[in-house]
Amino acid sequence: MGLFAEVYTGIADKANAGIAKAGLSDVDFETLIRLARSPRQSLRMSDLAAQTSLSTSGITRVVDRLEREGLVVREACATDRRASYAVITEAGNARLQQVLPQHLADIELWFTGLLTPEQLTIFLDMLRTIRDVVRPCATAGVINPRVDAGQG
Predict the structure, then answer these.
(1) For residue 152, pLDDT beyond 90
(2) d(CA 26, CA 9)
(3) pTM of the predicted model, to two decimals?
(4) Which residues are registered as beta bridge partners of 43?
């Protein structure tokens, strides 16, 4: 666990420097990227909280801040008055596009580029196996294309 924590912290430190230059915290970035890659670029607030491991009140504060900056809006759920969705805005997508090239370059330099394609495939498969057990909510609200296509 110590080695895993050291690797994660080292990669996060390298990647977060570029994110901070764009005026985003790591939590802001994670929230925007999860919204951007979700169907309709939106998630129920409860699913977003589950995906980010934040409490409901924690994700509310993050979305409040991103909403004040015009990067996210809230939309009411048409079928459940108690629920609402966080939706990334054009400005949110633009900010994300500002950060992504450097972020992807950092990930390539400090992580994926250090492994052969075969090593990376095996490593990512192992991480997904572990993630699905220890954080089953990490993909809450996301449609799984393999399951939906009958590939389980």
Answers:
(1) no
(2) 12
(3) 0.82
(4) 86
